[in-house]
Design the sequence.
């Protein structure tokens, strides 16, 4: 089976008109951050801690860093607008120097696109009214027109990213068709607030879909890991990284022999304001980054990493 190292659509070009796949060539560093929930200050702090922005909040990852944000950028906190403006800027700045910034849809992005505002902060100053917010998240709105093109799932090298988790049902050797299906279903589903036209939630966007699923994080490990292995084998990848399921202890959760990581540690002050990011380095080294330092979670090459190294040595010999 041919290895699918990319899926699309992934990130905006500098003109914010098209989406392309982020490559995973060479010794690139992947940094992943979880749910940010409308807290600009905490977001900037965690991005500085991970070394992807500087003290002026500009891209500092250079050409060898891929930043992945695993959804739920918005809601609960009061800085939704600021965060929705921050990430397109970082996408552009990273792109211009050869780096990459990638977002995947969280369940809160999906809810806002559908006009479900149950978790909006009552003190949020960024929108004049609920009607204005709904307009901004519409397909032609200032935020909706970009969010409708954000992928539901994303793959970089031998790692897949989602907000909740990708079950075998939604797994494939190439994730492109799942993103296309999700985008099509989202456009049909998200018809605006209080609409009689709303269809039932499509499965790809539902409770067992990649943006909502919690089984890998909450099921008994024997059950979760058996299902996870099936999904990873179908996708031909080594590991999965998600947010969505809050880790109250503020630590990245590693399960299934370091093949599944949960990085929602409650970064937003709407929760606990705890800081953590995940770092994936060449050779399958995985580390958690905390204000107190780094913790190595996985040291060795995974099966795909080992295969690539062996293949490279064959071609060099």
Sequence:
């Amino acid at each position: 089976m041919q290895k699918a190292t990319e899926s699309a659509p992934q990130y905006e070009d500098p003109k914010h008109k098209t989406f392309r796949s982020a490559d995973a060539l060479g010794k690139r560093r992947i940094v992943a951050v979880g749910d940010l929930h409308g807290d600009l200050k905490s977001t900037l702090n965690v991005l500085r801690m991970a070394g992807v922005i500087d003290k002026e909040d500009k891209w500092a990852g250079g050409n060898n860093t891929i930043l992945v944000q695993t959804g739920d950028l918005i809601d609960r906190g009061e800085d939704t607008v600021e965060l929705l403006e921050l990430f397109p800027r970082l996408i552009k700045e990273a792109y211009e120097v050869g780096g990459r910034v990638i977002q995947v849809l969280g369940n809160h992005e999906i809810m806002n696109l559908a006009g479900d505002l149950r978790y909006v902060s009552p003190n949020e100053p960024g929108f004049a009214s609920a009607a204005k917010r709904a307009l901004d998240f519409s397909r032609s709105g200032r935020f909706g027109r970009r969010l409708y093109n954000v992928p539901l799932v994303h793959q970089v090298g031998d790692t897949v990213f989602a907000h909740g988790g990708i079950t075998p049902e939604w797994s494939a050797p190439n994730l492109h068709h799942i993103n296309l299906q999700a985008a099509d279903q989202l456009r049909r589903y998200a018809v605006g607030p209080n609409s009689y036209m709303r269809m039932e939630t499509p499965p790809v966007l539902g409770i067992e879909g990649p943006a909502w699923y919690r089984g890998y994080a909450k099921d008994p490990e024997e059950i979760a890991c058996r299902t996870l292995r099936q999904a990873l084998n179908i996708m031909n990848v080594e590991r999965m990284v998600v947010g969505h399921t809050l880790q109250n202890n503020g630590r990245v959760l590693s399960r299934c022999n370091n093949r599944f990581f949960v990085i929602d540690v409650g970064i937003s002050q709407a929760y606990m304001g705890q800081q953590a990011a995940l770092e994936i380095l060449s050779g399958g080294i995985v580390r958690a980054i905390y204000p107190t330092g780094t913790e190595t979670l996985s040291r060795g090459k995974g099966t795909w990493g080992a295969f690539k190294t062996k293949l490279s040595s064959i071609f060099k010999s």
The first helix runs from residue 40 to 49. The domain at 26-316 is CATH 3.60.21.10 (Purple Acid Phosphatase; chain A, domain 2).
